[in-house]
Amino acid sequence: MGQNSELERYITNHINEESDTLKELYRYTHINILRARMLSGHIQGQLLKMMCRMINPASILEIGTFTGYSAISMAEGLTDKSAHIDTIEINDELKPVIEKFINKAQFEDKISLHFGDAREIIPTIDKKFDLVFIDGDKRQYPEYYNLVFPLINDGGYIIADNILWNGKVLDPITNSDDYTKGVIEFNEIVKGDERVERVIIPFRDGLFLIRKASTLRGQSD
Known about the structure:
Blueprint: H1 2-13, H2 20-32, H3 41-55, E1 59-63, H4 69-76, E2 84-89, H5 95-104, E3 111-115, H6 118-121, E4 129-134, H7 141-148, E5 152-161, H8 178-191, E6 196-201, E7 207-212
Parallel strand pairs: 1-2, 1-4, 2-3, 4-5
Antiparallel strand pairs: 5-7, 6-7
Helix pairs in contact: 3-4
């Protein structure tokens, strides 16, 4: 653990610094919000920002806002002035915190907040997406995948967080562990989906990077 901490400090010393708003949000979350470890944090935030620079999405869907760190990180990476993020959070008690820091970051016109069950909200968003970031209820990952896939443009991406689930994907599943079941089922669905290209990034708790292939292979791929 000590070595990991040293490596993390080394990494953070060699990448871009967090914006002042993200630094404040990180500190606020760890002081005031339960399960603060759910927050993306500096390294993952910069990774999401860089991915947005690379993909250059016009429209992003996020499932699982928490306190807004990842949404703000992605918004910082948007280069298209008209690009927009729709983010969904189940816990409406977090609304004041999320809105406060989105406003501090001056992204109130870039980020639209939706509160409630993502499975109910996704069908009401009349959009197609270039990037979907899944970081919601692990039990529902398979449902999220099936819901968002038709909404992703050809060549678009899904990034799914926590897909190694603290290494529990290697352990025998107990009948009561619906969270691990959800993650494993999601991983198997993606593995067997011939419509996508996929790679797992073994960073933190694992990121699944998934690209929806073009309808006509060989033309755009």
